[in-house]
Specification:
The protein has 345 residues and is mainly α. The protein has one domain. It is 81% helix and 6% strand. It is built from 16 helices and four strands. It has a two-stranded antiparallel sheet. A two-stranded antiparallel sheet has the order 3-4. Helix 4 packs across helix 5, helix 8 runs antiparallel to helix 9 and helix 9 runs antiparallel to helix 12. The chain is globular, with a radius of gyration of 21 Å. The N and C termini lie far apart (54 Å).
């Protein structure tokens, strides 16, 4: 029985951490994308865009806290390596998140002459956060190597991940808005689709070159055949986005959700491919899941907390999206103690 717990508990926490980070990338990804797209909208459209993410963006970051928390307490050895190697991009990501949080609150309370500044800072914070996360992903995939090839690879992901988030954000706006803003979101989605697709292909081609572990996993038989459905499904999702964004009548008919759903599918498939490529390593080529895990008794204690916390977060998230689902509208304010923004009808 002890052997079973020793084997299974690290895998359980690895799965929960992966779920939390995937949920964060998808959920916070779209509101980061909305922030990145903010400078390309009119002032009135900016209010609608911000209101479309208003009830959700803060709660979406709960998944990041959960994922990093599990890394810290369930895999302390990996936490030390990862955060030490990524100190600078993590600091930049936190600065970006702070900028977003401050700007979100201040933009609805600032005088008209200051609102533009807070809108720009919100967009800047979104872009910095997305680029920092891209650099972190690139560094992780290269095993935190500091050679020029690895640094170039990390830079490539840092520059291209914002296009993926922007596509998520555009898909979100297509679902949550209407009229001219919805048409703009369709246009934005089509513009960032090709850079995102090209970046995804380039990263897929470069990953085996910078990681021997990925190379062995991808091109060994029969694993190669087993992985083929992932790029095929991604290609189908890409075509679905291209088809819908190329025909505004399809969006007007109520199929705009396809853009967001297909983009989420691409992110999920990319995550599954990455997870398969790295297993059983939690720090590629350095630490396996079991080597990095805390003692079994510690994991059993943590298991109780996660068993309570994880369902609560899932239920709260589902409830929140059900309550606030609907078309976004322009911000309005109620003066009761302080001014609060509401934007979902």
């Amino acid at each position: 029985m002890n052997f079973t717990w020793n084997e299974m508990l690290p895998l359980f926490f690895m799965a929960v951490m992966g779920l939390a980070l995937l949920a964060y990338v998808v959920l916070d990804g779209y509101d980061l994308g909305v922030g990145i797209l903010l400078p390309f909208a009119t002032d009135d459209e900016k209010d609608v865009m911000v209101s479309s993410i208003g009830p959700f963006w803060d709660a979406n970051e709960t998944w990041l806290v959960l994922g990093i928390g599990i890394l810290l307490i369930a895999f302390p050895a990996a936490h030390g390596i990862v955060l030490s190697a990524l100190y600078l991009p993590v600091a930049l990501m936190l600065i970006g998140l702070i900028l977003r949080g401050v700007s979100f609150d201040f933009r609805v309370k600032a005088r008209a002459e200051h609102k533009t500044m807070w809108n720009r800072l919100f967009a800047l914070g979104s872009l910095v956060t997305a680029m920092a996360q891209g650099w972190m992903l690139g560094s992780y995939l290269t095993g935190f190597d500091h050679g020029w090839q690895s640094s170039l690879f990390s830079l490539c992901i840092a520059l291209t991940l914002p296009t993926g988030y922007a596509l998520l954000g555009a898909g979100w706006l297509i679902m949550k808005t209407g009229d001219n803003l919805q048409l703009k979101a369709v246009h934005w989605a089509r513009l960032v689709l090709w850079p995102m697709g090209a970046a995804l292909v380039a990263i897929s081609l470069a990953s085996p070159m910078v990681s021997h572990t990925v190379l062995e996993r991808w091109f060994a038989m029969p694993q190669f055949i087993g992985l083929l459905p992932i790029p095929v499904a991604c290609a189908v999702a890409f075509y679905a986005i291209l088809h819908v964004t190329g025909k505004p009548r399809v969006v007007a008919a109520g199929y705009g959700w396809v853009v967001f759903a297909a983009t989420v599918l691409i992110f999920v498939l990319a995550f599954l491919g990455l997870a398969y490529s790295l297993y059983p390593y939690i720090v590629i080529d350095k630490l396996t899941v079991w080597q990095a895990a805390s003692a079994t008794k510690s994991l059993l204690f943590i298991f109780v907390g996660v068993a309570i916390t994880l369902p609560a977060i899932i239920v709260y998230t589902v409830f929140m999206y059900r309550v606030f689902w609907g078309r976004a509208r322009a911000l309005d304010y109620a003066l009761s103690g302080d001014r609060r923004a509401s934007g979902v009808s």
